[in-house]
Amino acid sequence: MNHRRQFLALTGAALAGAALPSMAWAQDYPNKPIHFVVPLAGGGSADLLARLVAQHLSQRFGQPVLVELRPGGGTVIGSNLVAHANPDGYTILFIANSLVINDKLHSHLPYKGMKAFEPVALMVNSPQVLAVNPASTYHSLKEWLDAAHATPDRISLASLGPATTQHMAAAALQAATGAALIYVPFTGGALAVNAVLGGHVDSVLGNLAEMSAHIETDRLRPLAVCSAQRLPTLLQVPTIAESGYPGFEATAWFGVAAPAGTPPAVIALLADGLKSAMSDPVIRQQLESHGLQTAYLGPTALASHITQQYGRYAHLIDDAKITVQ
Predict the structure, then answer these.
(1) What global pTM score does this model have?
(2) What are phi and psi of 296, to 5 degrees?
(3) Which domains does the chain have, with CATH numbers?
(4) 167 CB-contact burial (10 Å; exposed 0-12 / middle 13-18 / buried 19+)
(5) pLDDT mean across residues, the chain
(6) Residue 235, Cβ density class (10 Å: 0-12 exposed, 13-18 middle, ≥19 buried)
(7) Per-residue model confidence as pLDDT tens digits over 194-244
(8) Which of 96, 94, 90 is nearest to 35 (CA)?
């Protein structure tokens, strides 16, 4: 059994085997603060989502849910902290595509990759946008790519990274178009956007949530979106797929996981709380206004999603020969 199937099988067995002692123990959960570790820098879409969810869970559980930002290492630093925490439901992890990307890219993680965690819930999807400073001479994806082809390794592209959706999307874009770009990783998406706003980097590929306000005020010029279809809030901006690269798509997803061995009854309580948060009309409106699309999945469905995502990224990483330094 390969490790992807093992991950799915172990998750299903854990949920199906919720023993009575676990249920009895969970009746007292939570009775102290919950630490919600976000392995990304503050100020971006992950920070926004985590704080909205933490507030909702705090009210639902009657205990503080404390957001702790632990960026660095392409999310490995924060993930490692949670992987080695007590599996009691009091330390949980904000996860994204990087959970599966790191598992493929790194042969020697300080934790057991995806097997170090129990999936709790998928919360949202986050569309990706390629944008430049409005002072730039590039007004379309074609102009940007033409310049990249004419002068290889001159145009810089900022993103959250490494080992993130944005890193993979940038690599896939270069592979699909033959463009040679200078990849500039940042520990947070908002930091990457700020680098372009300040004129320090030529372009940025990142979450719409971190760009929408700047696009609306003409401080960023969107060239293309990475979704399969045009976005309702950016109907004038073409997709990369329709711009000559059919099949190109990149979307970030955000969810929650707990350390492996966390009691299934506790996983279920956390999942129910997150489902409630994603169903809250006030939270949904706030998320949608920032370009985040609610897409709740429970523990079993998230486990299947993670397995599918691993296959997708493994194929991309192998084909594009992506490595991390």
Answers:
(1) 0.83
(2) -60, 135
(3) 3-125+252-320 (3.40.190.150), 127-243 (3.40.190.10)
(4) buried
(5) 90
(6) exposed
(7) 999 999 999 999 989 889 999 999 999 999 999 988 998 899 999 999 999
(8) 90
